[in-house]
Amino acid sequence: MRTVVAYEVGRPLVVEELPVPAVGPRDVLVRVTASGICHTDLTVINGLSPLPLPIVPGHEGCGIVEEVGSEVRRVRVGDRVLASVSPACGHCWWCVNGMSNHCELNPGVKAKKRFTVADGREAAAVCGCGTFAEAMVVDEASVVAVQTDLPDEQLALLGCGVTTGLGAVLNTAEVVPGSSVAVIGCGGVGQSVIQGARIAGAATIIAVDTMANRREAAVSAGATHTVNPADGDSVQQVRALTSGRGADYTFEVVGRPELITQAIDMARTSGAVTLVGMPAAGDVLTLPAISTIFSGKRIRGSVVGGSQILRDFPRYIRLAEAGRLDLGSMITHRIKLDEINQGFDLLTRGEGVRTVVL
Prior knowledge:
Blueprint (H helix, E strand, L loop, with lengths): L1 E4 L8 E4 L9 E10 L2 H7 L9 E2 L3 E9 L11 E4 L9 H4 L9 H6 L1 E4 L5 E4 L9 E5 L3 E3 L6 H4 L5 H13 L6 E5 L3 H13 L3 E5 L3 H10 L3 E3 L6 H7 L6 E6 L4 H10 E9 L13 H6 L3 E4 L7 H13 L9 E5 L4 H10 L4 E4 L1
Parallel strand pairs: 4-8, 11-12, 11-14, 12-13, 14-15, 15-16, 17-18
Antiparallel strand pairs: 1-2, 3-5, 3-9, 3-18, 5-6, 6-10, 7-8
Helix pairs in contact: 5-6, 6-7, 8-9
């Protein structure tokens, strides 16, 4: 099957023919029909994550089940499925206590080396998926069968970006109606945070981004105000839009320590700060101890938006089907597998919101 491989930092991705990985007892073979390009993949192929290269990138996708292992019970051949950035077995301590985004299968699923690439080395897939390929073999805990008429290009976005952003609002921060929200970073995940804030009923939604096209897209997604950091201190601009207090809820969706600090400073006293972006390996966050304690601010990390995929994939699909969640407007570019490097160039330049590989 044709598969994308990241061999070395700074080297273009390679599309090559690789054998289909073996399907083990718990595994599912899925023909990939659509896959979104997520910033997490860029972090990995740039060598800024703990994941070693070579690796098969891609973790936001959907497809059709073509083969299942002898122990698989969750899906059947012919099912339409969503791949998940985070597996959920459904029966470990984390899953039964409502934290399946921390499922105990996570480390093993994501580290498994399923591929032997052209130079003979073994390779894993990003998040245990590897959606930048004609097919992928994944643990059954990493897929959820879905029934919907949403097109593949829209459905794929729920595999990571939309679920992460929407979940950060609805699950992690639990934004309440009438509140104020500030979002730093308005790419695919940031746009999903903005849509989540709109769905939750926030009255003031402030989109902070350096790119004009993304600020414009944010307004279409539901932002009531935009902030361009080039116009001055972003924190002061947000405070000016929130009666000088700061926002009730702030979200950092880029993954840079200096922007995390800004998100904390943008939040009002006793406000909620939600950290969504993926920092580079080795990044360190330093905070002033006294003000961090006495401000009463709540700072929380949000892993896959705190989403429980067996519950939330169907819930988010219903929101899209009802017209409350707009997936179609997020897709700004469509490419073929052979154009994967062009797709990452778009992401690196900050052009558009989401590029989908079809």
